[in-house]
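Lab notebook, design round three. We kept the backbone fixed and only want residue identities now. Task for the bench partner: fill in a sequence for the structure below.
Input structure tokens:
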């Protein structure tokens, strides 16, 4: 009975403070044991956890600008006989005009050296050089333009073009254009029969076209 009386009793109308209740209910905090760094065991590192070696960055070239691809056809079919003949006659007139200018310059130079009037005739010894000069001018004129663009100035005016017969996207080689220019003289023979055969056939090719594997088309340029 004495022990019960010695216990501190709380009156029924009074309540204990919250701090006192919490301190009596909660166990005393335990201090975590700290170990020195030397005694801390680290787990072994897996090969998958190892950092990868640094690699040099791969140089990336800048993207090249894409070229627009044209969907238009390279030509619009074979060129007609009349269009080709008009272009050829115009080119022939231009060749003769250039030859007259060169002949005038040449004759003027000969007259100044001779000291009198001069004009080459068939009986003159200078007729052959003048004719050879016309041949060189004729062949060089057509060969140069056909190899460079496939078009002489007159062909460009009439929108026609000389290309390869089997590969219409490619131009003739310089050697083929020289042979084609020589072949014009064969087409002139027999009253222009080599030109007249271009009236027939699907591709309307003349004799000079057959000999050189060429094909005259309507250009889209």
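Proposed sequence:
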């Amino acid at each position: 009975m004495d022990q019960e009386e010695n216990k501190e009793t709380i009156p029924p109308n009074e309540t204990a403070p919250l701090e006192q209740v919490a301190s009596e209910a909660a166990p005393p905090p335990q201090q975590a044991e700290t170990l020195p760094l030397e005694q801390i065991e680290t787990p072994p590192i897996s090969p998958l956890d190892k950092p990868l070696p640094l690699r040099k960055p791969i140089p990336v070239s800048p993207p090249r600008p894409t070229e627009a691809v044209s969907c238009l056809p390279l030509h619009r079919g074979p060129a007609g006989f009349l269009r080709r003949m008009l272009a050829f006659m115009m080119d022939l007139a231009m060749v003769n005009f250039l030859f007259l200018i060169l002949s005038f310059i040449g004759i003027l130079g000969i007259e100044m050296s001779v000291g009198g009037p001069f004009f080459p005739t068939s009986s003159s010894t200078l007729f052959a050089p003048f004719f050879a000069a016309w041949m060189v001018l004729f062949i060089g004129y057509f060969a140069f333009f056909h190899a460079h663009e496939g078009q002489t100035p007159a062909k460009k005016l009439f929108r026609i073009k000389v290309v390869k017969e089997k590969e219409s996207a490619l131009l003739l080689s310089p050697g083929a254009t020289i042979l084609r220019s020589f072949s014009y003289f064969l087409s002139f023979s027999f009253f222009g029969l080599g030109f007249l055969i271009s009236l027939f056939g699907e591709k309307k090719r003349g004799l000079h076209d057959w000999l050189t594997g060429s094909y005259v088309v309507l250009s889209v340029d």
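Keep this in mind before ordering anything: Residues 160 and 218 are 4 Å apart (CA to CA).
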